[in-house]
Amino acid sequence: MPRVIFHVDMDAFYAAIEQRDQPALRGKPVIVGSPPTQRGVVCAASYEARRFGIRSAMPSVTAGRLCPKGVFVPPRMSYYREESRKIMEIMERTGALIEPMSIDEAYLDLSALFQGDDDNNALYRAVPVAQELKQDIFVERGLTASIGIAANKLLAKLASDFDKPDGLTMITERDKAAFLRPMAVRVIPGVGKVTAEALNQAGINTVGALQDSPGDLRALVGSFGPKLKRFAFGEDDRPLEIGEVVKSISSENTFLRDTADRRELRACLREQAEEISATLKRKQFGAQTVQVKVRYGDFTTLTRQITVEEPVTEAGDIYRLGCFLLAKEKLVYRPLRLLGLGVSNLGLPASSQLMLL
């Protein structure tokens, strides 16, 4: 049976909802998050704001400096979650198996609808289904989605990123290797900053160079090499995860002595962020929610969290969000017995804009 996988990704989800509900914001650089006059961070940005370099987890003061005419809007997370639920219901009407990846993206497996077709014919026949799904989301919810169609999750994700916003891209089995060739190595799942640097130092900057490299790449990237080589040719047999999956990743430290020393606490947060980031990259996840947990000497325990639109994977972003929560909520008003950092709302990591070289 041929495989037909959609990756459905809502376009600038939080900001698009605000622009839909407030017509005066349409066409303007909308930044969802704390205003630049307050200590805070960016949760999401419209495409108009992204042109100025605005991104999730960026300090609001930096966003205000980069985009002086940006319109800052406070986030409405419960409202965004309810909107997500309604969009998932529209996806369910396709009859597909669905793997929600985050609040604004999901994989759909429609293979059962195309039994008897060969691989490429099935993909072509799936295009009208994707067009109808996009139309239903737009008519019923007033929002646009980008959809990638392919025979596996890797290619479907890359296809949905390729022509944003409001895009529809199909990658056939026949054309997949050629489609991937001009892309930067960072588009491959599992290729983070460190792996990309190792490949770049070996003269491998594009997926095409990966395809042309002799051997299985173990000498450059260890045990990830054979899998990376398969990904470079668009080969991916991962099934949709319909059952229970990893929901959160966290790290905690109990201090030998209760402490309110800011340098010690920041150093602890940084180590935790690096540990969590390494786990996220190993599991090929990004996280939209960052949480800080504190416990005082009397065992009183408090938690605070923040959710951003673009999933984060880098230790620096996770650390920055953790520091923001500690400061914003004034959690360090007396010595801490325990400090914890965690991430949840896990999904695919944010990818860079795919550019043809």
Blueprint of the fold:
Layout: E1 5-10, H1 13-21, E2 30-33, E3 42-45, H2 47-50, H3 60-66, E4 71-73, H4 77-92, E5 97-102, E6 105-109, H5 119-141, E7 145-150, H6 153-162, E8 168-170, H7 176-180, H8 193-201, H9 207-212, H10 218-221, H11 225-232, E9 248-259, H12 262-283, E10 286-296, E11 301-312, H13 315-328, E12 336-347
Parallel strand pairs: 2-4, 7-8
Antiparallel strand pairs: 1-6, 1-7, 2-3, 5-6, 9-12, 10-11, 10-12
Notes on the structure:
The protein has 357 residues and is of the alpha+beta class. Among the domains are: 180-232, Orthogonal Bundle (DNA polymerase, domain 1); 248-347, Dna Ligase, domain 1, CATH 3.30.1490. It has helices at 13-21, 47-50, 60-66, 77-92, 119-141, 153-162, 176-180, 193-201, 207-212, 218-221, 225-232, 262-283, 315-328, and strands at residues 5-10, 30-33, 42-45, 71-73, 97-102, 105-109, 145-150, 168-170, 248-259, 286-296, 301-312, 336-347. The strands form 3 sheets. The protein has a 5-stranded mixed beta sheet with strand order 5-6-1-7-8. A 4-stranded antiparallel beta sheet has the order 9-12-10-11, with helices on one face.
